[in-house]
Specification:
Chain A: Keywords: Cell membrane, Membrane, Transmembrane, Transmembrane helix. Chain A: One of its GO terms (cellular component) is plasma membrane. Chain A: It is a multi-pass membrane protein. Chain A: Pfam families: BPD_transp_2 (PF02653). The complex is a heterodimer of chains A (365) and B (508). With 365 residues, chain A is mainly α. Chain A folds into 2 domains: 84 residues, no CATH class; 266 residues, Orthogonal Bundle (ABC transporter involved in vitamin B12 uptake, BtuC). Helix content of chain A is 75%, strand content 2%. Chain A is globular, with a radius of gyration of 23 Å. Chain A starts with a helix and ends with a helix. Chain B contains 18 helices and 22 strands. In chain B, the strands form 5 sheets. In chain B, strands 6-7-8-3-9-10 form a 6-stranded mixed beta sheet, with helices on both faces. In chain B, strands 16-19-20-13-21-22 form a 6-stranded mixed beta sheet, sandwiched between helices. A 4-stranded antiparallel beta sheet of chain B has the order 2-1-4-5, with helices on one face. In chain B, helix 15 runs parallel beside helix 16. The two termini of chain B are 46 Å apart. Classes of the chains: A mainly alpha (365), B alpha/beta (508). The interface between A and B is large, with 30 and 41 residues.
């Protein structure tokens, strides 16, 4: 008999592969309809990236990975945290202010700023958690609204604390002192450095996996996600789990903007990158909420983004075609997981039936 | 026999689901102008059958004939087109709409949404004596009136066959009488009514013919004039009744569970003020099985959930072996020694999409041998699951199989094994053999008897009166949230219990 865990792994891989093939197919159709050269577009996008591009891909993937993790924490408990976007901007702003003020020297300042970011993200997400647990407000609605409030709030406070950069209309927080930045490293002789924060992101992924799969807390969280009613009967306090899960999701979301802050911009300004929270939803879906899966999803999205840049120059096609692919992936992922899940359930039921039949025949013999 | 074709004829209907009792070779003839009752235990397959007849699910085998014509129903719209309408147990009405708006919703093409529709509603209401005013808001109507609106909705769509799923479950006795009056009007006008119930006295009083379903198949069709409710009960349960307690008593004088003055207020809202539990007091001693009898929905589920700490509004005192449970969370109560076999194993007992070993841990997250410093030792959990699979005869390829893939009986055996493994001193078993196969049923009865011999206190809730009589040392009857009678199982008949359950008889 085949090892059920191997079968499970095979099915787990089949779903995303199927989703990607479908997404590429649909994107190709769009290209055909628009009269763009399908073959040239794919050969540009799916080529092997050059060294300098690899650094960009890794950097972008680091940020997307944290965003995917934050969303995945909620997903594991059936909470749809759409507010990662607002949470990371509030958190990055708070971290930028704390790090810029430099109350502590060097690395201690960095640690303090990271903790402040996680706290800020947790607090912002916690609002939605408490509303859901105490008043039954859908976290989908409240986190979307909180995204808007976050935009306004950050813009307002940015004016209060900002310093104007020399010869520019951009405003931003005070620059983080050099000793408190997180140094990057080079791949080969490329000019772009890879964020040092990538190691912290990997660590976050490991902690996510360990907490969910090896601890009692993680068991309670997964059980609540699978069946609220069974969780209640087993003695889990669902209201408490809802709040805690949102706090953790928000804390992880608080990390999303930090690779940029400590490795690239060194201050939070009006041009700080936004929209990273929404990509996280797609990546968590694609990665099946599994830390390795999310990493692959994040790398894939970052790879597609990077490789699409020269499309305009080389083949005269807008790089936005990749946004279509990414959007379609979200849809095909949902479909193909459901198809594969049903197939898996059938397979398992057959296995159970076969085992029982064998039992019976043994009993007869 | 009548020369006209029956209104509905089902032949050899079969439906298989993984893990649940299916329909198997169901044969029913519903004559025109009659009330045909379909009775069976919970989980016997009544609902599946009705879903098939209403086009919600397709049968795997068999044929459906309506008025002599063979049909295939692939959706409720199909069923309605063939004149089959269904009134669900849970009403499907928009509260903030008027009766008229609710009735025409989805059927706007029939008579429009204005005066013609209003006239048609009034005509139907008068013709069948439903007494419905089309312009009242549904939220102002009582439960009985809402049910009549549902019936009218079905008639408005031209139904000749009306299916009612457990229609009396939500009604008080006077409303039940009114409903039966309405049904007799329908019958007089030549319509056929299919009436699903497990309340035997009601069925005997209203039906012209009764079909009994047991374990997914039709076992008999009888004339109500020729059977007693005891005979019906036997048909429903089959011959596999547990032998009424011939075993010697193991009841001790040590009180394990002491419940005093347990009350639970009803939900807020008009007409909902009746308390769900009303000053309930009882003791269960070590080695004693206390059976709770009652018509479904009279507070059994609430009683269990209040003891488990899942009902925040409950007042009164619950003590387990001298420990005051009132302020404890559900988890602490379980740790204090409660094993809990829930009524609905899919909703409360299992994580269907999780492997068996995770289901073994569920409810025992904080227990040895796997709980260490907030971590869960998977190896230990798997090993202990293997033990339960072997000791409790759970038929499964392995402990990594998903709970969903097992049959109902094997799921239940896993739950029983799990709940008996936490060193409980009190076992709460709510409908422990509902929807499981005969073999698993006997095994589960054996485990409950073993628990009693081992000195556990057992609280047994069941809709199966013979199961209650066979296993209990004492039976309490619950009616509208109150304990209304105490019976000695060695001297009580199902009829006596039945009348106490409906409030017709008193305590012995």
């Amino acid at each position: 008999m085949k090892d059920p865990r191997l079968v499970k792994l095979g099915l787990g891989l089949a779903a995303p592969v199927l989703a990607l093939l479908l997404a590429f197919l649909i994107t190709s159709l769009v290209l055909v309809v628009a009269g763009d050269p399908v073959g040239e577009v794919w050969s540009t996008i799916l080529g092997v990236p050059e060294e300098r591009n690899i650094a960009n891909i890794l950097n972008n993937a680091t940020v997307l990975y944290l965003s995917g993790l934050a969303v995945a924490v909620g997903f594991r408990m059936n909470l749809f945290n759409i507010g990662v976007d607002g949470q990371y901007r509030v958190a990055a702003f708070v971290a930028a202010v704390v790090a810029g003020e430099a109350w502590l020297p060097g690395a201690a300042n960095t640690v303090l700023a990271i903790l402040a970011a996680m706290l800020a993200g947790a607090a912002w997400a916690g609002i939605a958690g408490v509303l859901r647990a105490r008043r039954g407000v859908s976290e989908v609605i409240s986190t979307i609204m909180l995204n808007f409030i976050a935009t306004g709030l950050v813009a307002y406070f940015l004016r209060r604390v900002a310093v104007r950069e020399e010869g520019s209309n951009d405003i931003g927080t005070k620059e983080i002192p050099e000793g408190s930045r997180i140094p990057g490293f080079s791949i080969g002789d490329g000019p772009t450095e890879v964020y040092g924060f990538i190691f912290l992101a990997a660590l976050a992924g490991f902690v996510y996996w360990f907490v969910l799969n090896r601890t009692r807390f993680g068991f309670d969280l997964r059980a609540t996600g699978r069946s609220t009613t069974a969780a209640v009967a087993s003695g889990i306090s669902v209201t408490k789990m809802t709040v805690v899960a949102m706090l953790i999701s928000g804390a992880v979301a608080g990390l999303v903007g930090l690779p940029l802050l400590f490795g690239d911009s060194y201050s939070y300004g009006s041009t700080f990158q936004s929209g990273l929270g929404f990509a996280g939803i797609a990546i968590a879906l694609l990665g099946r909420n599994h830390p390795i899966g999310i990493a692959i999803g994040a790398l894939l999205f970052a790879y597609l983004d990077e490789q699409s840049n020269p499309l305009q120059i080389l083949v005269g096609v807008s790089p936005d075609i990749v946004a279509i692919t990414q959007g379609v992936i979200v849809l095909t992922v949902v479909i193909s997981y459901e198809v594969v899940r049903r197939y898996g359930v059938r397979l398992e039921q057959h296995a159970v039936a076969r085992a029982l039949e064998a039992d019976r025949q043994e009993a007869r013999a | 026999m009548p020369d006209v074709a029956p209104a509905v004829r089902l032949r050899g209907i079969g439906k298989r689901f993984p893990g649940v009792i299916a329909n198997d070779d169901i044969n029913i003839d519903v004559a025109r102008g009659t009330i045909h009752a379909i009775v069976g235990e919970n989980g016997a397959g009544k609902s599946t059958l009705m879903k098939i007849l209403y086009g919600v699910q397709a049968p795997d085998s068999g044929t459906i004939e309506i008025a002599g014509e063979q049909v295939s129903l692939s959706s409720p719209a199909d069923a309605i087109r063939h004149g089959v309408g269904m009134v669900f147990q849970h009403f499907q009405l928009a509260d903030n709409f008027t009766v008229l708006e609710n009735v025409v919703l989805g059927a706007e093409k029939l008579h429009g949404i204005g005066a013609a529709a209003r006239a048609e509603i009034t005509r139907i209401s008068d013709a069948y004596g439903l007494g419905i005013e089309p312009d009242r808001l549904v939220e102002d109507l009582g439960v009985g009136a809402r049910q009549r609106v549902e019936i009218l909705k079905v008639l408005y769509r031209g139904a000749k066959v009306v299916i009612l799923d457990e229609p009396t479950a939500v009604l008080v006795p006077q409303e039940v009488d009114e409903l039966f009056g309405n049904l007799r009007e329908l019958k007089a006008e030549g319509l056929s009514v299919i009436f699903i119930s497990h309340k035997l006295d009601e069925v005997l009083s209203v039906a012209d013919e009764i079909t009994v379903i047991r374990r997914g198949t039709t076992v008999a069709t009888v004339d109500p004039a020729g059977v007693t409710s005891r005979q019906l009960a036997e048909l429903m349960v089959g011959s596999e009744l547990p032998s009424p307690s011939t075993e010697s008593s193991t009841v001790t004088d040590r009180v394990t569970l002491h419940v005093a003055d347990l009350s639970l207020p009803g939900a807020e809202g008009p007409g909902q003020g009746r308390p769900l539990l009303d000053a309930i007091s009882f003791d269960i001693h070590a080695g004693e099985v206390l059976g709770i009898a009652g018509v479904e929905g009279n507070g059994q589920a609430e009683l269990v959930e209040a003891i488990m700490g899942m009902r925040p509004g409950a007042t009164g005192s619950i003590r387990l072996a001298g420990v005051d449970l009132d302020q404890l969370s559900t988890r602490r109560r379980r740790e204090a020694g409660i094993g809990y076999i829930p009524e609905d194993r899919h909703r409360h007992g299992l994580l269907l999409d999780a492997p068996l070993w995770e289901n073994r841990v569920l409810g025992h997250q904080t227990r040895k041998p796997w709980a260490r410093l907030g971590l869960i030792d998977r190896k230990a959990a798997r090993a202990d699951t293997e033990r339960i699979v072997a000791d409790y005869d759970v038929r499964t390829p392995g402990v990594d199989t998903l709970a969903r893939a097992l049959s109902g009986g094997n799921q239940q055996k896993l739950i029983v094994g799990r709940e008996m493994s936490g060193e409980p001193i009190l076992l709460i078993a709510a409908h422990p053999t509902r929807g499981v196969d005969v073999g698993a049923q006997a095994a589960i009865w054996g485990h409950i008897k073993d628990a009693r011999r081992a000195g556990l206190a057992v609280l047994l809730i069941s809709a199966d009166l013979d199961e209650l009589i066979g296993l209990s040392d004492r039976i309490e009857v619950i009616l509208r949230g109150r304990m209304v009678g105490s019976f000695d199982p060695s001297h009580v008949t199902p009829e006596q219990l039945g009348s106490a359950m409906t409030g017709a008889g008193g305590a012995v």
